[in-house]
Every structure is written in C-alpha cells, then in structure tokens.
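G., the chain you wanted modeled:
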Amino acid sequence: MSEKNISIDEFHIPRWNELPNVDLYLDQIVTLINKTLSPFIFFNNNSEKEDSQLLTKTMINNYVKNNLITPPEKKLYSKKQVAKLFVICVLKQVYSMHEIDTLIKIALQDASIADTYDDFCNLFEDALRCAFGEKEFIDKSCSNEKIHLIKTTLLSCSYKIYVQNIITEKTE
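Predicted structure as tokens:
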C-alpha cells in the first residue's frame, strides 16, 4: 500500500456508538466521511478539489432528492443518516444508487440500523483485509443469506479498492 495511506490494520470505520450523538451539519458530515474513508479511495488525477472528494454537499443533496436518505431536520442530519452515508460512500465505488438502495433495504429487514451498520463496518474491514491478503473471509457454507450477501457485496468493493491501489502505485 502506498505511503500516503494508512495500513489495513489501522483502518477503522466508526461504529454506531462511535458516531456523534448530536446531529451534524452538512459540512461536518462531508469532513467526517471524507477523512475516514479517504485512505482507501483512489481518484483520477484531477486538480479540482471537488473532484478529489468522495462525498460533497451536492452529492448529499442528490441522495436526499433520490430518497436514499431522509431530508435533514432544520439543516441537521441524524446519526442514522450519517451511518447510511458511510454505507453509500463505500458501495457507490461498485454499485448503482438503485442497487445500493435495494441492498440497504434488504440488510435492514428484521434488523436495527445500529446492528446492521456495525455488521457492515466489521464486514467491510474484514473484506479489505481479505482483498489485501491479510485474512480469510468468505465462508461458503454461511447459512445466513443476508450476511452472505453483505459479505460478498463488500468483498467486491474491497477488491476494487485493492486493484486501484496497485494501479496507483504502478503509475506514480
């Protein structure tokens, strides 16, 4: 992994209980998510600041317009909305917004958002470690269809990040 990135072992997405308990403004969400996820997101060599961000205010507004997240209340976004934005930012590397919306709905069936989000974070970190060759991940005998779907979804995102990392290292 290139020097500008943290190691896979150090990477951590805040869990439900680590997300702010107070509602956040748009700028605060953009900063939090870009800072957290930027070590594993690779961009084209554009000099435009807007082009080098994983999440922008405009993107969030579009997610609200397209009903991926609920509108803010008095310009403030809740913990639930922040968690969904983390999920969207990871999955949009590979999946369409319609597919992401469907995957989120499937994942939330018969489960709380807190538990589902924590599972997502744990599984994404495991998938990254697997893609970078540091951990075994997929248990083909997994009897829980929903967990298996989430695992394979996150593994596809992780392999894309891995390939982009190699491309970036080879072209620098």
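Confidence is low (pLDDT under 50) at residues 1-5, 43-50.

Shout if anything looks off.
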